[in-house]
Please model this.
Amino acid sequence: MKILYGIQGTGNGHLSRARSVVPILKEFAQVDTVLSGTESQVAVDFEINYRFNGLPFVASKKGKVDIFKSIVKSHPIDLIRDIRRFPISNYDLVISDFEPISSWSALLKGVPSIELSHNVSVASKESPKPYSKDKMGEYVLTHYCPSNLKFGFHFEKYNSTTFLPVIRKEVRNLVPIADDFYLVYLPAYHDQYISEILSFFDVEWVVFSKYTEKSYRKKNVQFHPIENDHFLSQMEKCRGVLCGAGFELPAEVMFLGKKLMVIPMIGQFEQLCNAQALKKMKVSTIPSLDLAYYRSIHFWLQFELPIKVDYPDTLRKDIRQVLSEGVNLIQRNEPVKPVSAMSLMRYFV
Model:
């Protein structure tokens, strides 16, 4: 069986998960990978066979999704061309972690496909949602990656198709302690703005930033370029973590038993949903990095207790379940009805 594994490259979480998923998939099948998006700083130890621009999300300097810049950078005509030209017929099965080119190409050519992503669980009716509705955000989650079957990851098991988070082996091997500093990872905010806000708090901050090329210090805030081993060593030692409301990092922080505060990216529906799910787990959340929330941050620093969540290593069992369903799709010998190229246009243009 030949599998194409699609990876979303907007942010670091999908590639971090792929570092654990791809080696297990390769134990059972021949696997090629496709990456769409250029916003990830995670290095991988497997070959990326195809790379595309994808559908990026561009953030402003103060943590808000810039819709106009995101649309301009997405090049929808190029996206449709990439979908149509992709050699998807070379594969028996597509497994996509919220990667649109492999998913839509599979739909266009009638190749069986499975979505395996955090976004699947976020979109499910059972998972927590913010009180304010976001019809566009919900539409993107449900239509971004069409597939025959869907499995997801989330902070808790909300239904039978939800798996618990993938905790990397490197994180499971850490021996956490609580030194007197806090780790920060807020890629939606620029360094200058982070420094201006965090300098008001009388604690040591260690910030990892995609905008930093060389380590430096401003008052009580240290900035470092993103590097996996250094980041892990600081996460192992820190007292707590202030980060975006993504998925992988908050799950790892809770697994390590660290204090956690999350800030969802403004206008990013998935992160708003994550923040709501974490809030139900008693994790501190604030709407944005702003001195309007000085008291909330100060209380978290001084009085908040760590949250420890046990996430057992079930990834191999979860992958076997997904592959079993994939084999069933293939063995049915029922050709998946392909769609026309024209029908793609209404989704992207």
